[in-house]
Amino acid sequence: MDPDAAVGVARQYAHYARVWFPGHSPLYAQWAAGVAADPGLTALIATLPEPKRQPNLVFASARFLGSGDVAFPEFAEFLRGRWDDVCSTALRRRTQTNEPGRCATLLPALARVAERDGRPLALIEVGPSAGLCLLPDLYAYRYDDGPLLGAGRPVLRCRTSGAPPLPRALPRVAWRAGVDLNPLDGTDPDTRRWLECLVWPGQDHRLAQLREALATLRAAPEADRPHLVPGDLNERVAELVGRVPPSARAVVFHSAVLAYLDPAERARFADTVRGLDCSWISNENFFMDEERGTVPAAREGYFTLALDGVPLAHAGQHGAELHWLPGAGGT
User: Which of 41, 52, 95, 291 is the most exposed place for a label (fewest CB within 10 A)?
Assistant: First the structure.
């Protein structure tokens, strides 16, 4: 085991305990802080390939195997006792968190594209998991204490600041597709259980939201179900854009996906998308600047929502907050 790798694991878990989990999942914050302070556990996790060491994946793997949402000492005992199984699960699966709530923060950008272009949208998501974020027109939304927008389920609630340009009607979606290294079948019971384990402990509203979105996917007419293809996003995104009907406007989008690419692959993706006939919506914990490359998000613990390379807002990581930036154009 590489001692430097164990130090890196400790730093990563301490960062999650300080930045990403507090205010969202106290139990995960406790687990992450406990792992960061436990050299034996950091050494175990360091034996995984680097992309598989992330807290979300390790914790979800343990919960999938039956750890329960227990206090850290009991969780640590489970992790040590079942490490071979946890390791195997983490190696076999991916985080692929499919958070439909992010549609609430993506919607103003999608509506802006539809308003400017005048055509229905053809949505192409890179890293779509089971494709739940490809169904924004099938959900309903409530921003702050405003009126309900849409008639579907789940109802996605979002707090806002900075006067974002909230749509008065949902944009029309004529076509939807996605590319993922491992597309998931949201109608499969085992897949649904894995997606549920990816929801952080204590977030019962997210779990209920996920279940309603999966039910919406299962009940959707065949024409409304996303066409998901396996493959590398850099290899297949241009192909999908090329399939878009001329009567629709292509929109390539992604949330919490590009962080899993190395800097060269991210730069390649950005160059590719900028050269395609499409709009590009990015929702990541960094911002792809054309001249400076990857720039960390200006607001720690939030994503940066951008349209065609222009930052619009800081967004809550699961879609519950949207803070519109001055000068981005609002209501």
Answer: 291
Closest CA to 63 of 29, 28, 20: 28
pTM summary value: 0.87
**Cβ-proximal residues to 159 (8 Å cutoff; 6+ apart), any chain:** 143, 144, 320, 321, 322
pLDDT tens digits, the chain, 331 residues: what are they? 577 899 999 999 999 999 999 999 999 999 999 999 999 999 999 999 999 999 999 999 999 999 999 999 999 999 999 999 999 999 999 988 889 999 999 999 999 999 999 999 999 999 999 999 999 999 999 999 999 999 999 999 999 999 999 999 999 999 999 999 999 999 899 999 999 999 999 999 999 999 999 999 999 999 899 999 999 999 999 999 999 999 999 999 999 999 888 889 999 999 999 999 999 999 998 776 655 555 555 677 899 999 999 999 999 999 999 999 988 876 6
Q: Which of 178, 165, 170, 173 is nearest to 119 (CA)?
A: 173
Q: Which amino acid is residue 50, in one-letter code?
A: E
Instruction: Using DSSP bridges, classify how beta strands 293-296 and 303-307 pair: parallel, antiparallel or unpaired.
Output: unpaired
Supply 32's token pair: 């992450």
Q: What backbone torsions phi and psi does residue 64 show, to the nearest 5 degrees?
A: -60, -30
Tell me the C-alpha distance between 104 and 321, whole Å.
9
Dihedral angle over CA of 125, 128, 130, 132, nearest 10: -60
CA distances from 196 to 15, 97, 105, 212, 255 (A): 24, 9, 21, 12, 18
Give the list of residues 6+ apart from residue 216 with CB closer than 8 angstroms, or none.
135, 138, 139, 152, 153, 154
Euclidean distance between CA atoms 33 and 38, whole angstroms: 9
Q: What is the DSSP pairing of strand 279-284 with strand 321-324?
A: unpaired
Residue 303 phi, psi dihedral angles, 5° rounding: -90, 160
Q: Which residue has the tokens 């406790």?
A: 30
- Rounded-to-integer distance, Cα 157 and Cα 173, Å: 21
CA pair distance 322, 280, nearest whole angstrom? 18
Q: What is the C-alpha to C-alpha distance for residues 205 and 199, in angstroms, rounded to an integer?
A: 10
Residue partners of 202: CB distance under 8 A and separation at least 6 = 25, 26, 27, 69
